[in-house]
Design goal:
mainly alpha; 2 domains; EC 2.3.-.-; Acyl_transf_3_dom
């Protein structure tokens, strides 16, 4: 199966799939334009004299595209190990690498968001509760304590 996927995507045996970078870029643009349009306060998006609001309103699908890409890329090492009769990938190592990549910058982001927006006082009981909920990635269960709405995707991943 991995060989079929490699043939379809025209990729070599390396782990990087450059074709997916283009799809990832499209997903980034979809999400970025959607959020920029939402923050603009405009109800319509006019480009070259045409109302293209219907295209922009589908920007949330960029998040879905990221999830599909993640699922595919997480699944691919298992397919490769099966096709090549190798041992399965080490889940523990994956979790450690992924955690070291995401969690430190996430914590810095959360603290900077609090400090720069003055949303809450870190010294109050409400601030400590909010910080703990977000540090433990529980904001999906307690959305009223979510510091920044875009962090819901990381909470889902965790």
């Amino acid at each position: 199966m991995a060989q079929l996927i490699q043939r379809i995507l025209g990729m070599d045996k390396s782990k990087h799939i450059p074709q997916l970078d283009g799809i990832r870029a499209i997903a980034v643009l979809m999400v970025f334009v959607y959020h920029a349009w939402g923050m603009s306060g405009s109800s319509k998006f006019i480009y070259a004299g045409h109302d293209v609001t219907f295209l922009i309103s589908w920007g949330h699908a960029g998040v879905d595209l990221f999830y599909v890409l993640s699922g595919f890329l997480l699944f691919l090492p298992f397919v490769r190990s099966h096709d090549e009769s190798k041992s399965m990938p080490n889940i523990k190592n994956y979790i450690i690498r992924r955690s070291l990549r995401i969690i430190p910058i996430y914590y810095v982001y959360i603290i900077l968001t609090i400090l720069l927006t003055s949303q809450i006082s870190l010294l109050s009981s409400q601030g400590v509760k909010t910080l703990l909920i977000n540090f433990l990635f529980l904001q999906g269960f307690f959305p009223e304590y979510m510091i920044n709405g875009v962090t819901w995707t990381l909470a889902n991943e965790i």
